[in-house]
Amino acid sequence: MKSRLLYVLTLLLAAAPFALPGRAATYQNPLSTLTDPNADADPRLLTGLDGKFYLYYPQGSYIAVFKSSDLINWTAPLGTGSANHVLRSSDITTPNTGFWAEGAFAINNTYYLYYTLVQSGTKSIGVATSSSPLGPFVDKGLVLTGSSSHAWRDPFVFKNPDTDKIFIYFSDGGNGLMGQELCSTVSPCGSNTKPTRVLTGSSAFTMITLSDPDYQAWEYIDLEHPTMFYAPNADSSHRFYLMYNGAGGALARYAIGYAYSASPRGPFHRATAAPSGTCGGGMNPMVCQYQTAGVYGPGSPNTVVDDAGTRWILYRFKTTNQESWSDRRTAVDVLFRNGLDQLVVTPTIHTNQTAPVF
Prior knowledge:
- The chain is mostly beta strands and 358 residues long.
- It is built from 1 helix and 23 strands.
């Protein structure tokens, strides 16, 4: 009898869910481990070559980074530079007054930090490299040089798993989202020490703009923060998903939408606009303000698939309906793709959620 009880107990323990040390079984939004008042600007997620997650935030004169093993528990701030900064505006060779949103990419044992550089009257995109996601990053100069008619910002770099070609996506000052193929190894390109300069000749392509026939009212003011991901088991016309922000970042109605394409070069097709007063359900925007719960202005989308095959979206949102930059927090929710290849996200806040599995 004693041995039978021990056998049954062993089976029950084997079947019961458990949390590994240091891993979250459940969590609540906003993430409590990202409570630093400067930690919620416009987060950009990177899966490091070590399998850990790194979250980069622009902080005006510097860029900070946070580290996690599970998307939920974050250690911050980290970095090898002065005051734990991975990159400072004073490290940049081009005259500037600080940073806006950035994007990180890793390949061939090298980390690339693409930054938006604020300059007099415009913005440009540059890149710095390091052997570690914590830096120190060494500036390699501008990739996209801004002008009075083009304020390039919000870089995101993506590798097409079908072809191994690498693309950089960015905002054209808010009026449209652009893309450009980079060298296959990103950097160096031949004898150059930085990626091929983009927007030369006809090599650049436009993804979506505010003047498109399928432009939607919720996008008004800005198109920004492009994020690309690949869904290999989707319909062939939907395998490349472009998530992006519409409206203004300090507004309660700021929201996250998406478009899809058969190619990373496009053409991209916006998801059908949601009926007035609604949000999500496979239509645009797929993440918008949820006033009853206290979620406003979701933005800066990032995505990753966990070990259980669930895709997650990490994003920031506002905790008030005021036009403000000082009320932002970070959240993680499930990004569901339904049987029609539509993206659906239900924002959660102050409720227990099952954590990702890594």
